[in-house]
Amino acid sequence: NSGPLMSKPKHLGVTPPISTNAPSEEEEALSTDLLNTLKDEGVFEGEDERKNREVVLGKIDKLVKEVVYQVALKNKLPESLARECGGKIFTYGSYRLGVHGAGADIDTLCVVPSHVKREDFFEYMTALLKERSEVTELTAVPDAYVPVIKLQFSGVDIDMIVGVLQQPTIPDDLELLDDKILRSIDELSVRSVNGSRVTDEILRLVPNVSTFRLALRCIKLWAKRRAIYSNSVGFFGGVAWAMAVARICQLYPNQSASTIVARFFHIFLRWNWPMPILLKPIDEGSGQFGVWNPKFNQSDRNHKMPIITPAYPSMCATHNVSQSTKQVIYVEIKRGVQIIDKIMKRELPWKHLFEKDEYFRQYKFYLQVNVSSRGDEEHHRLHGFVESRLRFYVASLETSGQFVLIHPCTKSFEHEFACKSDEEAQRIRAGFLPAELPTPAPEGEAATGSGTEATVPDAADGQDASSAEAGDPTTGSDSDKGKIHTSTFYLGLHLIKRERSATGERRMDLSLPTQDFIRRIKDSDVWKGDDEMAISIRFLRQEQLPDEVFTGMSRERLRTSSSTRQDKKKKSKKRSTQGADDAAASEAPAKKAKLAAAP
Fold it and tell me: Annotated catalytic residue: which of 159, 200, 357, 464?
């Protein structure tokens, strides 16, 4: 439905439009080309998949009503009244916005009446889902910032959250945009309900929904291909990209999707951050809940690229953005400007905008964060928790003064191994996967032990830093054998050039931020002990990365203009020291990273 959800003001947004011009024939043609390119890229779901999603949502709606009914009976309500308590699901995110792609998950809000406590919902819904043969990969995370049940239902990925309203029944015609529904509900329910409220407000605040959807599909694909689509690790998530595109639609209300995309890149290249992106003035509401206000809240003043949700209570959707991820986003938008200008001149086709990033060829050094667990469900929780906490590690590394930026990878690498020996289990827990062979340290770059291990202060030669951090996997037992689940995350490092020490070495000391991050993970309720779980962090050169990260691309590192200049200087210096022999070359100073074990 591309029509308005309710009456709209004279103009949409916090300022009048920049232009109300209609698109030219050429701009319309470019929009048609964009649509065809997106179809070729496979971003639209097929008819069978669409019907399957609708069937799945219908089944989930019935399950929600059943949970409400069962809890009502537990609370001694008469059966006739229990059946009338209702319950309803709402979708939000990309599915509700109408921009989901093939295979995308569905964000689902389950609204229940006041007699259903959140704990009841998780207990009863999880039990009902376990009985369904169509349900797989069921994981409940009740202690998340927004408590969630993750599952796959008939092949459809579902993220299910719950909102408890302070009313005895939930009718099928319930709407969520009225602020009155927020009265007396707790903060967790506000967070849950606001996902749907924000999505509906975005649709209400754009002048042309079909244009908005096409432009947003383009920006979503671009952001995913360029690896800057991930709220959890510090980039923009789906709702943030949607609000950014919606703001451009407000500024050019009559334009076609191609022009919206072009203006998107140009305007946000010059955006004066931290000036916020707003779709409407912030509503202070009744004062029951705090809203985003940098004048009074220090934490709000710290936001690097604030994009503010339009539904009360307004919040910053981009609070996870760090100084490093802000720089990465800027670089990608700048690249987008260069390409979109050529597309609009018919000098390049749209597909060039969607070329995949080459993250693992960009940097000379990387940090590899490995976590492993013995249990499947436990590992799902550990993976999600570590991913959500990586941004704290990045922030801590940023304050160390040793990096120009730290670039988190938006993709993690998952494995499941059946270990045949204690030794194999120990190596996996220490971060060395079976297919991975230790890579000798390149000439002039000393490293302790295998060449892929980071040095540990006060450690004997050959000690694996990862082992120390993982607990104590060096002492094998029968319990080490069996199945191990692993997740690997990467941080690309752009180092500040440092002077050599008196011994000729250039050292980095990452001990404190690494200790703090590992302690943060181990002190959480998710951590089930060093016998069941392990965490390791390794400092790697680009050529020491495992083969799996280079799928479909060359291993050769990208040469920047600065690195090219450095190569020329090295060649020039080499010509001026022709008398130097191989022995002298082998004495080149080492770069060492110091990663200390958590106490």
Answer: 159
